[in-house]
C-alpha cells in the first residue's frame, strides 16, 4: 500500500508540474517558467517535453537556450521516426547548436534517425571541431562498439609525470563523459594502460603515469557487436571500456549508461522475437503497420500448421473408430508446446548471458530433457487417474499418459537444442521464437499420439 500511495503521489506531482509549467508558458511568465523547469531533474524535463504538444514544444525552444535543451535531449525517449518531424519544426541553427552541446555519441544516435539531407545540413552549421568528431562516429555501424562509443574521454601519455597529468585532467574534465577512468597511450596513440582517478590523486607527484597504470587493459574493437561489448562490461563490472582499432589505437570509450541502453534494447528485441514478431510494437503504430510486423512469422506458422492438419487427416480412420481420442489433442499438443517454450527461454537466456559454453551444452540439453521427462510423467499420472475416473478406459489412459510423457520430453529437448544449434550457426537464437517451437512440437506430439493410438487400435475398439 505504501508503494501504491507513493506512486500515486508521484503521478499527481507530475500532473501538477505539467499544468503549472503549461500555465506559465501560455501566460508568458518566462522567468518563472525557467526557474521552475531548470530546477527539475533532466529526466523530469525530458518527460515533460515528451508529454507536451507541438505548440508547447515550440515555446520551450523559444525560452530555453540550445545548451539547456541539450541537457534533457540526452534523456529523451521518443520513437525513432519522431526525430525527423521534431527537427523539421526547429530552426536549423538552433538544432545544430543543441547537437553540438550534447555528448557526441548521443548526438550521433539522434542524427542516425534523420534523413541524410538534414544530417549534412546540420553538420555544415556546426563548429568545425564538433562536426569532425560527429562525422567520425557516423561512419561506424549503428549496433557496433564504434557506433555507441564517445570520443569525449580523458587520455594521458604514459610518459607524463603525475604532477603534469593532474593539470591535464583538470583541463579535460569539463568535456569528458567520465573522469573516473583514465586511459594511457604511447607516443603512437596506442592504448598502453588504464588507471583510476583515485590512482592518480594518491600517487606521488614525481611518479610517472607508466608507474601507476595497469598494463592489462580489457578493450573492445570498433567493429565488435554491441551485445558482446555489453556482456564483457557486465562480466568485468566496468563503468567505461576503451574502444580500439585493429592496430590498438585508442578511438573512444563506451560508458555504462550507453551499455544499459544496449541491454534494454537487446532484451526488448529478444522478447519480441520470442513472441514471434519482428520487434516490439509501438503504441502509436497503425493497424496496417502492426499487422505488417507480425505477418511474416504468422504466414510461416500457417504453412507449418498445415503439416499438423495433414497428420490429423492421415489418422482419420483412427479418429473415426475412437472419437474420444480427439478430446485429448489440445492437452498433449499444448503441454508439449508449453514445455518446449520454457526450455527455449532458459536456453536463450543462458546463451545471451554467456552462462553456456561448448562443454556445458550437452549437460544443459540433458538436464532439460530430464526435467521434461519428470514433468511429463507427473502430468501423465494425473491425467491417467482422471481418465480412469471419468471414462474407465485403462488402455486409452495409458496411451494418453505415455504420449504426454514422450511429447513433453521431446518438446523440452527440441526447445533447448534449437537455440544452441542456431547459435552454433551464428544465427540469433532468439529467432527460434516461442510460436515456432510450439508449432514444431505440435507436429511431433501428434505423430507420437496417433502413432501409439493406431498401434493399439485393436485394444481400444
UniProtKB/TrEMBL annotation:
Superkingdom of source: Bacteria
A GO molecular function held by the record: metal ion binding
UniProt keyword annotations, A-Z: CBS domain, Cell membrane, Magnesium, Membrane, Metal-binding, Transmembrane, Transmembrane helix, Transport
Gene3D superfamilies on file: CBS-domain (3.10.580.10), MgtE N-terminal domain-like (1.25.60.10), SLC41 divalent cation transporters, integral membrane domain (1.10.357.20)
Cellular compartments annotated: Cell membrane; Membrane
Location of the CBS domain: 149-212, 213-269
GO cellular component terms, A-Z: plasma membrane
Protein's membrane topology: Multi-pass membrane protein
Annotated transmembrane regions: 295-315, 327-348, 369-391, 397-422
The protein's assembly and partners: Homodimer.
Main function: Acts as a magnesium transporter.
Family per record: Belongs to the SLC41A transporter family.
Protein name: Magnesium transporter MgtE
Naturally occurring in which organism (per UniProt): Staphylococcus shinii
Amino acid at each position: 500500500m505504501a508503494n501504491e500511495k507513493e506512486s500515486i503521489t508521484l503521478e499527481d506531482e507530475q500532473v501538477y508540474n505539467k499544468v503549472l509549467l503549461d500555465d506559465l508558458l501560455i501566460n508568458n511568465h518566462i522567468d518563472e517558467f525557467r526557474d521552475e523547469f531548470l530546477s527539475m531533474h533532466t529526466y523530469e524535463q525530458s518527460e515533460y517535453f515528451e508529454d507536451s504538444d507541438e505548440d508547447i514544444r515550440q515555446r520551450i525552444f523559444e525560452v530555453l537556450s540550445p545548451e539547456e535543451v541539450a541537457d534533457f535531449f540526452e534523456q529523451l525517449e521518443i520513437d525513432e521516426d519522431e526525430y525527423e518531424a521534431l527537427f523539421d519544426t526547429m530552426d536549423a541553427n538552433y538544432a545544430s547548436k543543441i547537437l553540438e552541446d550534447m555528448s557526441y555519441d548521443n548526438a550521433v544516435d539522434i542524427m542516425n534517425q534523420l534523413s541524410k539531407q538534414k544530417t549534412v545540413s546540420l553538420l555544415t552549421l556546426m563548429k568545425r571541431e564538433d562536426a569532425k568528431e560527429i562525422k567520425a562516429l557516423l561512419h561506424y555501424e549503428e549496433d557496433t562498439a564504434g557506433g555507441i562509443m564517445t570520443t569525449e574521454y580523458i587520455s594521458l601519455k604514459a610518459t607524463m609525470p603525475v604532477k603534469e597529468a593532474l593539470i591535464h585532467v583538470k583541463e579535460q574534465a569539463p568535456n569528458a563523459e567520465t573522469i573516473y577512468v583514465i586511459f594511457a597511450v604511447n607516443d603512437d596513440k596506442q592504448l598502453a594502460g588504464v588507471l583510476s582517478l583515485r590512482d592518480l590523486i594518491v600517487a606521488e607527484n614525481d611518479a610517472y603515469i607508466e608507474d601507476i597504470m595497469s598494463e592489462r587493459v580489457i578493450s573492445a574493437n570498433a567493429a565488435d557487436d554491441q551485445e558482446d561489448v555489453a556482456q564483457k562490461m557486465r562480466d568485468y563490472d566496468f563503468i567505461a571500456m576503451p574502444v580500439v582499432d585493429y592496430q590498438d589505437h585508442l578511438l573512444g570509450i563506451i560508458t555504462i549508461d550507453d551499455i544499459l541502453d544496449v541491454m534494454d534494447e537487446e532484451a526488448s528485441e529478444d522478447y519480441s522475437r520470442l513472441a514471434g514478431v519482428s520487434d516490439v510494437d509501438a503504441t502509436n503504430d497503425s493497424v496496417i503497420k502492426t499487422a505488417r510486423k507480425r505477418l511474416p512469422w504468422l504466414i510461416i506458422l500457417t504453412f507449418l500448421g498445415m503439416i499438423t492438419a495433414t497428420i490429423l487427416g492421415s489418422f482419420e480412420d483412427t479418429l473415426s473408430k475412437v472419437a474420444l481420442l480427439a478430446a485429448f489433442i489440445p492437452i498433449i499438443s499444448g503441454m508439449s508446446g508449453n514445455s518446449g517454450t520454457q526450455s527455449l527461454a532458459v536456453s536463450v537466456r543462458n546463451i545471451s548471458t554467456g552462462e553456456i559454453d561448448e562443454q556445458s551444452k550437452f549437460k544443459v540439453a540433458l538436464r532439460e530433457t530430464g526435467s521434461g521427462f519428470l514433468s511429463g510423467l507427473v502430468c501423465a499420472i494425473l491425467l491417467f487417474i482422471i481418465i480412469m475416473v471419468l471414462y474407465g478406459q485403462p488402455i486409452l489412459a495409458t496411451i494418453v499418459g505415455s504420449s504426454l510423457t514422450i511429447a513433453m520430453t521431446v518438446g523440452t529437448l527440441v526447445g533447448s537444442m534449437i537455440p544452441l544449434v542456431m547459435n552454433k550457426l551464428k544465427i540469433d537464437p532468439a529467432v527460434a521464437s516461442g510460436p515456432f517451437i510450439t508449432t514444431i512440437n505440435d507436429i511431433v506430439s501428434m505423430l507420437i499420439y496417433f502413432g501409439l493410438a493406431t498401434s493399439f487400435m485393436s485394444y481400444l475398439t
